[in-house]
Amino acid sequence: MALNPQHFNTQNSRCKHTALSNSVLHKIANGPSLQDFVSSDPPKDWSSYEGKLRREKGESDRLRLPPWLKTNIPTGTNYSRIKDQLRKLNLHTVCEEARCPNIGECWGGGEHGTATATIMVTPILC
């Protein structure tokens, strides 16, 4: 099927911006900041860590993750249910492909119980 140029809009289209209401501007100005999401109590000195952080030249053994990079293995009924459904439907998620350490929070539903997963439209390549 040949493409017909009449089907294309050749004029520049622009987003139509609308002004934000005062209440929205107030919420943005008084909402959470980066500091609300960053923990304020991480240790400043990791000199007490006895594990290796770098391999020596020529070493091929895998290093163990330091404690500050470890996460809990995701579990739970919501997590298992979503994973089973995705496998049955042969679907893959961005979370899995990116090996997101927070996958258990999204798939498990967190404190509100709403489990979410971001499905990839293309095949299993991210």
From TrEMBL:
Its cofactor is [4Fe-4S] cluster. It comes from the Eukaryota. Transmembrane segments: none annotated. Residues 14-100 form the Lipoyl synthase N-terminal domain. Keywords: 4Fe-4S, Iron, Iron-sulfur, Metal-binding. Residues 51-60 have a biased composition (Basic and acidic residues). This is Lipoyl synthase N-terminal domain-containing protein. PANTHER family: LIPOYL SYNTHASE (PTHR10949), LIPOYL SYNTHASE, MITOCHONDRIAL (PTHR10949:SF0). It is found in: Mitochondrion. One of its GO terms (molecular function) is 4 iron, 4 sulfur cluster binding. GO terms for cellular component: mitochondrion. Residues 33-60 are annotated as: Disordered.
